[in-house]
Amino acid sequence: MTSSGAKPSRPWYSDVTRYDWLILLIASAGWVFDQFESQLFIITRDPMLAELLGSQTGSRGAKFWGDVLLGVFLVGGTVGGVLFGSLADRFGRKSMMSATILVYSVFSGLTYFATTLWHVAVLRFFVAMGVGGEWAVAAALIAEVFPAAARARASGIFHATSILGTWLAAAAGIAVGTHWRGAYVIGILPALLVLWVRSTVQEPERWRLAGAHGERMGSLSDLFGDRRWALRAIPGLCLAAVGLATFWGVTVAGQDLMRELLLHRGVDLEVASQRAKFAYGFIETAGGGLGLLSFGPIAERLGRRGAFALFQAVALVVVPFTCYVPRTEWQMFCTLPIFGFFTLGIHAGFAIYFPELFPSRLRATGAAVCFNGGRLVAAPMLWLSGELKSRFGLEQAVTGLSLLFAVGIVLLLFLPETKGRPLPE
Fold first, then answer.
1. Count of alpha carbons within 13 Å of 239, Cβ hemisphere only?
2. Between the chain's N and C termini, which has fewer beta carbons within 10 Å?
3. Domain residues for 346?
4. Quick check: is 27 in a domain?
5. What is the CA radius of gyration of the chain?
């Protein structure tokens, strides 16, 4: 029983309507396939390069083109995120969500017909545009539709569904084997989601009211020209850059750590590579999914900045532990989920936090600039990570790169706490 003066606590989902859940389902479906398209190239890269490079496969050309295509994807995600985020603030969440899903689905499907790596580069750029744009639109939509008490958890659930996209891409890669083109045929299926979006999604009341008041919508000059929003956008972008740089430099290295451990124990290279892919694609990623789901409840208890600080502080300990302590395959299997929980889990915070930093007329634009601009700032990590690993060794390089989490903790000092506060208008 509660005391007479105390209000009984209510579940966070008490005021969530059926329509709210439907919006979360639709936005999450778009994000699942968004991540499916993102991971598809990583899963199919080796057989694709083997076919399109031909006799050059074993040369430095393979590594060069692998890095180029990843770099193209990061740039495309930045361009598409900012473009579609701005358009979503101007013309609505519904139309731009449909557009972004169509863009990444159609151009992924067209990859089936690629005959040169230049074709792949152009197509991956447009796929990335859709991928970057969809996240910004969906994150803003969920923040505006869900009641305040449920917003953090709903946004965390939304971002956590990305794990399903990674698993689908891994399953597609296994199913098609070396016949990589078949995976990209599957990639056109998300276009069917557009019919669901068009028939179900309504523009949020917050966005309609902002437009009705005659405010300038989706303006980059307003975002960076107004000191209030610029002082949130710039450190927010840098915080996302830390998360994305550590993803490419640290989180994905879980696969390399397992492979190297197995090779040191005398396991055949091909067998070690397959076990390492499983360890990363399913075991570590499962831990990462739990981290993503946990970020929302933790952010409700500790605040947004408190949750970011906690995850990054623990990552500073967990990463070197994972690099140096496990000595058997099973020890690494037990460690990788914890490694994934903290290094990947912080990414849910971007979907929760960034839409809360900006008003309705700039919400998708600001969230897109932070998250997708962070991609561009983090892009040099692809080169730096490789250089550090070749010079100092895998364990030392990954441990050194994890120090970026300390930079992320410092950046929190320049950002406001949004827990318990209404969305800015």
1. 30
2. N
3. 219-425
4. yes
5. 21
| Closest by CA position to 425, among listed 149, 213, 150, 230 | 213
Percent of the chain as helix, strand, coil, to the nearest 5 = 85, 0, 15
Single pTM value for the model: 0.89
178 and 227 assigned to the same domain: no
**The Cα angle at residue 393 between residues 387 and 397, in degrees rounded to 5:** 65
Cβ 138 vs Cβ 101: under 8 Å = no
170 with 225, same domain?
no
- For 418, residues 6+ apart whose C-beta sits below 8 A from its C-beta are 304, 353, 356, 357
Residue 82 near residue 368, CB atoms below 8 Å: yes
**CA dist 126 to 69, 77, 121, 359, 372, Å?**
12, 8, 9, 28, 14
Who contacts 9 (Cβ-Cβ below 8 Å, separation ≥6)? Answer: none
236 and 172 within one domain: no
Along the 425 residues of the chain, how does pLDDT read in single tens digits?
A: 444 444 557 899 999 999 999 999 999 999 999 989 888 887 888 788 888 887 554 556 677 787 788 888 889 999 999 999 999 999 999 999 999 999 999 999 999 999 999 999 999 999 999 999 999 999 999 999 999 999 999 999 999 999 999 888 878 877 887 789 998 998 898 888 998 998 899 999 989 988 777 778 999 999 999 999 999 999 999 999 999 999 988 998 999 999 999 999 999 988 888 888 889 888 998 999 999 999 999 999 999 999 999 999 999 999 999 999 999 999 999 999 999 999 999 999 999 999 999 999 999 999 999 999 998 888 887 778 878 888 898 999 999 999 999 999 999 999 999 999 999 98
Instruction: Report the domain count for the chain.
Output: 2
Together in a domain, 145 and 293: no
227 with 135, same domain: the answer is no
- Domain containing residue 139: CATH number: 1.20.1250.20
Identify the domain boundary among 140, 168, 199. 199
Give all strands (DSSP E) within 295-415, no chain letters: none
Instruction: Evaluate whether residue 190 is within a structural domain.
Output: yes
Determine the Cα–Cα distance for residues 98 and 49; give it in Å rounded to an integer: 32
Say if CB 23 and CB 141 are below 8 A apart: yes
Q: Of 400, 80, 118, 381, which is closest to residue 244 (Cα–Cα)?
A: 381
Assess if residue 256 is contained within a domain: yes
